[in-house]
UniProtKB/TrEMBL annotation:
Name of the protein described by the UniProt record: WGS project CAEQ00000000 data, annotated contig 1965
GO biological process: ubiquitin-dependent protein catabolic process
Region of interest (Disordered), residue spans: 415-434
Residues annotated as transmembrane: none
One Gene Ontology cellular component: Cul4A-RING E3 ubiquitin ligase complex
An MF annotation (GO) of this entry: phosphatase binding
The organism of origin for this protein: Trypanosoma congolense (strain IL3000)
Length: 534
């Protein structure tokens, strides 16, 4: 079993088996419990050969190539440790160094006898790459290697992180799933509101249609909110440009926002949420299981009328993390090692994700995991701690923003061609009967390989698309992208509302708690938009 389980499809099959047969199991450490049985067989093997001694060299038994292996193994590991004290204790023993790993420095630990031969140029090279360690120092601590895997593969390891978050944060686990806060005597389980027809898949309107709509809307939202922020910051600095109080507007913003009917200039965050709920779906908003997906309490949060409420179910609905007493206190070392820097965890997960490339739900789990990170932060430190985490992400986001600025202001092929022609005395910016519609593009037929793709296709430099204009003005801002990813999250769960119960099935955390945290982030993020100075 240990040698065959590393196939990605088999890892996902085991992951689904554990999730299915562990739901609502309170005593998970019983000898017959699924997590106990599979954990006894695989936990040590995963931690030693798929985390600590893994390599990126293809063909070896511990290879992380292709990346699908990383996702499948860490997803399986996440299901093994979720709310299971025994497997979490094994993980902690490896993290604190109580397990001797010196035996993993032998060649047999990386190149097992059943491993197929590598296609390399010489026997010397084959022997060289078989000598461990291949992707770590010889006596490197396990915790350091694990942190490197998580930071390097934030998206692929997000389900593992989510399992750790909910398993080590008391006060989030609940008996029932509820949709709205505050919880009253009239609160019912969300599963009771789901009809049979609403539980089936969305076979009429597919994901690309929804995400295309959300992408267009969220692009307009960012442009509108960014202009408001730019004007507000200009007022604070006392540097308004012009007597009518109008601040600088980046080039092409009107093309980014799309039709005027799409979004009112006076639209609020609440109006934006209502637009996201109207994504294409086989059910209209009124026909869905939760027609009032956001209620008045949610509106008060996103509009700033009230602060973020305490995160977590009321005491009569709360469920302890483990069936045994005092288990959480003995796992504090995992929290000290893995959760001491939430900003880096968040940046590692969201950094590789781009809202413009969201065409399916494949990576939406990463956004959900980030909401869980903020839910833990808010549970332990309150609303102010959420803002502090966003502040601490700024230095990391600034690095990527500066790289984007360098690329943005780099001289393009078209501009270089224009400059060369001007130095030669040509200075003609038209090609035949075609005028140049964009001042940044000045190709001519004689530019050869320097001609842009638009010139080759249309015979002239075509205007930039809405996506290109958005990227030119706001593409380098981590917080703008994070705001748009939250829009994707709202568009998905607001339309496909059956997944509200699926999320509870995977985490046992009420959807209302995640929704409140998301709304608070939705309200805060525009204040962190990184904008060019007027």
């Amino acid at each position: 079993m240990r040698t065959a389980v590393w196939k990605p499809w088999l890892c996902h099959a085991l992951e689904g088996y554990l999730r299915c047969f562990s739901f609502w199991v309170r005593r998970r450490t019983l000898p017959a419990a699924p997590q106990k049985i599979v954990g006894d067989v695989l936990m040590s093997s995963i931690l030693e050969h798929r985390v600590y001694n893994a390599t990126y060299v293809p063909g070896l038994s511990g290879s992380l190539f292709p990346s699908k292996r990383i996702e499948s193994v860490f997803s399986l590991l996440g299901e093994l440790v979720r709310y299971h004290y025994g497997n979490l204790k094994i993980l902690q023993d490896y993290i604190v160094g109580d397990v001797d790993l010196s035996h993993l420095n032998g060649s047999h630990s990386t190149a097992l006898p059943h491993t197929r031969q590598l296609h390399v140029g010489s026997e010397r090279m084959e022997q060289l790459i078989r000598l461990p360690p291949l992707d770590r120092e010889e006596h490197e601590p396990f915790a350091k290697v694990l942190l490197r895997r998580i930071s390097r593969h934030g998206c692929d390891t997000n389900l593992f992180l989510r399992s750790l978050l909910i398993s080590l944060t008391p006060g989030l686990r609940s008996k029932i799933n509820y949709m709205w806060k505050p919880v009253t005597d009239d609160t019912v389980d969300a599963r009771e509101l789901l009809s049979v027809s609403s539980r089936v898949g969305d076979i009429v309107t597919c994901c690309p249609n929804r995400f295309s709509y959300v992408g267009t809307c969220s692009r307009s939202f960012v442009v509108l909110l960014a202009e408001r922020q730019r004007k507000a910051r200009a007022l604070v600095r006392g540097g308004m440009t012009g007597g009518d109080g109008a601040a600088h507007t980046p080039e092409g913003v009107s093309s980014v926002t799309g039709p005027a009917s799409l979004l009112s200039p006076d639209a609020t965050l609440w109006d934006m949420l209502q637009m996201l709920l109207r994504v294409p779906h086989r059910y209209s908003v009124e026909e869905r299981p939760f027609p009032q997906f956001f209620d008045d309490y949610d509106r008060a949060i996103v509009m700033g009328s009230i602060d973020l409420p305490p995160v977590g179910p009321p005491p009569h609905l709360a469920v302890p993390l483990f069936s045994e007493e005092g288990c959480h206190a003995s796992l504090v070392r995992i929290e000290e090692v893995l959760f001491q820097k939430p900003p880096e965890l968040l940046y590692g997960i969201l950094g590789p994700l781009h809202a413009e490339r969201f065409h399916s739900t494949g990576r939406l789990c990463g956004v959900t995991t980030c909401i869980f990170v903020f839910a833990r932060v808010a549970r332990l430190g309150g609303a102010s701690a959420v803002r502090d985490v966003l502040e601490n992400i700024k230095p990391l986001a600034r690095v990527g923003y500066e790289k984007w600025r360098e690329h943005r202001y780099a001289t393009s092929h078209c501009a270089r061609g224009k400059k060369r022609r001007e130095s030669e005395g040509a200075g003609n910016n038209s090609v035949g009967d075609h005028s140049v519609p964009d001042s940044r593009c000045h190709c001519q037929a004689g530019d050869g390989t320097l001609r842009c793709s638009s010139f080759l296709l249309h015979g002239h430099c075509a205007p930039r698309s809405a996506v290109a204009l958005y990227h030119m003005n706001y593409g380098g801002c981590f917080f703008c992208n994070m705001f748009r990813l939250l829009c994707c999250w709202v568009g998905h769960y607001g339309a496909c509302q059956r997944y509200v119960e699926t999320l509870f099935y995977c985490t046992e955390v009420p959807f209302a708690e995640l929704k409140c945290v998301m709304l608070y982030l939705f309200r805060l993020l525009p204040d962190f938009f990184m904008l060019e100075a007027p």
